[in-house]
Amino acid sequence: MERYNGSLLYQALRKKEQYATIHRERTVTLTGGVDLVAKLNPRRLTLLIANRSLSAIDIGFSPTLKAGEGIMLGANGGTLVLTWLEDGELVGSDIYAIGPSGATLYIIEVEASVTGGGG
Predict the structure, then answer these.
(1) Which of 72, 76, 82, 116 lies at a 20 to 30 A Cα distance from 15?
(2) Yes or no: is domain 22-112 CATH 2.60.120.770?
(3) For residue range 60-72, what is the model confidence (pLDDT) as tens digits?
(4) Residue ranges per structural domain of the chain
């Protein structure tokens, strides 16, 4: 039995585009400057970023991001979710964050498998 056979998105990709999906989870610790937290990835279908720190963190799509600009993720669980169905190519863009040194983000990325078919 396939891992995500109940997901409508998975079924659509598997049937119509013949792509399997994979997911990756990781934690990123910020440096206090502007950090690249998700690299450009045209295969990315969904991105979830959750703020695990005690301070607000700003998220943006430019390496010139400044504190107080961009999308604010509130302390203790502020979350950003991007999906290709709703956000288009934005989901595959470079994603940057700025926040206090030592602040952590929990990140989940879902992407089309490289070994998928596409046809």
Answers:
(1) 82
(2) yes
(3) 999 999 999 999 9
(4) 22-112
